[in-house]
């Protein structure tokens, strides 16, 4: 019986690293179109097909990926999970979901469970309480691949799937400036969390670029960026003697609550105050007027996280410790910033 062609066979035939072959087969953006075509042609010629299940039995693998999310009920994380499962299913892997509820104590307990070789690799979004990473060191020592997404450690070498929060916030704020807003407020998240700090920095940078003064009365930070917190901040901004005519919010929940508070007080949106959110939650297309927001491409982030993790699982001899993949965002302009001339 003819021996099955392996990844190493392809690597030898093409004089390329096995990791390069694997990335080409995964359509990785870092591999040139020419190399991808060469690899695909040779794979077809030699009859190469990936057989994750058979490989896993031979290596005594569980074919399971562990995913730790802060909160499953947040739409962003639900979309990320969908992306992870979509890619993992096609690769022959199962996905087990854990919820940290933003607690470092709970997050630590979950990682201990996963250390017991329950899963081949771990994908995680850090909880808001997480300020140390000792609980991940055992995973590294056991050579269990680890990928962080969205909320990632800033001073810890690791594989990360991120968006450019600073640039996205800058563009969102600049959009408010370009439509004529003169006093722009910000409803932000906890500044101990990197993504929300970056969004605040992007907001400030846009004001600075266009010569706008920084008025601290227009900036408020929340603990969880909840609907209720957004409403409280909006009421404070409403009661200012010189209230804002534009607001950039660090998520859609606070943006929607702000819209409703101003509407209840007969403030016209967008002509009297324009509002931009972040994440493109379904509610952004339900609220009237529809919300201008940043599409953070959560599903694509999940796909990218699973792709990177599974590549490491299947290439044990070539585990990558610090690859960073940045997912491109887009500003979706809707009625909440479409001012009449």
UniProtKB/TrEMBL annotation:
HTH lacI-type domain span: 5-59
Gene3D superfamilies: 3.40.50.2300, lambda repressor-like DNA-binding domains
GO molecular function per UniProt: DNA binding
Keyword DNA-binding carried by entry: yes
Source taxon at top rank: Bacteria
Keywords carried by this UniProt record: DNA-binding, Transcription, Transcription regulation
The UniProt record lists the keyword Transcription regulation: yes
SUPFAM superfamilies for this protein: lambda repressor-like DNA-binding domains, Periplasmic binding protein-like I
Annotated protein name in UniProt: LacI family DNA-binding transcriptional regulator
Originating organism: Belliella kenyensis
């Amino acid at each position: 019986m003819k021996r099955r062609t392996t990844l190493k066979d392809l690597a030898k035939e093409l004089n390329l690293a096995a990791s390069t072959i694997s990335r080409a087969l995964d359509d990785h953006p870092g591999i040139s179109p020419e190399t991808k075509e060469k690899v695909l042609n040779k794979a077809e010629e030699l009859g190469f097909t990936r057989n994750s299940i058979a490989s896993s039995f031979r290596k005594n693998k569980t074919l399971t990926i562990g995913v730790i999310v802060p909160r499953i009920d947040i739409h962003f994380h639900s979309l990320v999970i969908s992306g992870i499962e979509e890619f993992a299913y096609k690769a022959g892997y199962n996905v087990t979901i854990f919820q940290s509820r933003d607690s470092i104590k709970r997050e630590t307990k979950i990682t201990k469970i996963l250390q017991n070789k329950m899963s081949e690799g771990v994908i995680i979004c850090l909880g808001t309480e997480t300020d140390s990473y000792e609980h991940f060191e055992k995973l590294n020592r056991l050579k269990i691949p680890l990928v962080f997404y969205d909320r990632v450690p800033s001073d810890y070498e690791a594989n990360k799937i991120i968006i450019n929060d600073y640039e996205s916030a800058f563009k969102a704020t600049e959009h408010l400036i370009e439509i004529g807003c003169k006093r722009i407020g910000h409803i932000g998240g906890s500044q101990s969390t990197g993504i929300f700090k970056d969004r605040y920095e992007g907001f400030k940078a846009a004001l600075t670029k266009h010569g706008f003064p920084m008025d601290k009365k227009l900036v408020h930070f929340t603990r969880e960026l909840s609907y209720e917190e957004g409403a409280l901040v909006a009421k404070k901004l409403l009661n200012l003697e010189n209230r804002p005519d534009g607001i950039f919010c660090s998520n859609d929940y606070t943006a929607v609550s702000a819209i409703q508070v101003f509407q209840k007080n007969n403030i016209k949106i967008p002509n009297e105050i324009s509002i931009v959110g972040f994440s493109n939650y379904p509610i952004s297309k339900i609220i009237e007027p529809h919300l201008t927001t940043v599409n953070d491409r959560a599903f694509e982030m999940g796909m990218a996280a699973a792709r990177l993790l599974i590549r490491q699982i299947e290439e044990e001899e070539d585990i990558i410790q610090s690859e960073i993949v940045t997912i491109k965002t887009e500003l979706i302009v809707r009625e909440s910033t479409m001012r009449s001339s």
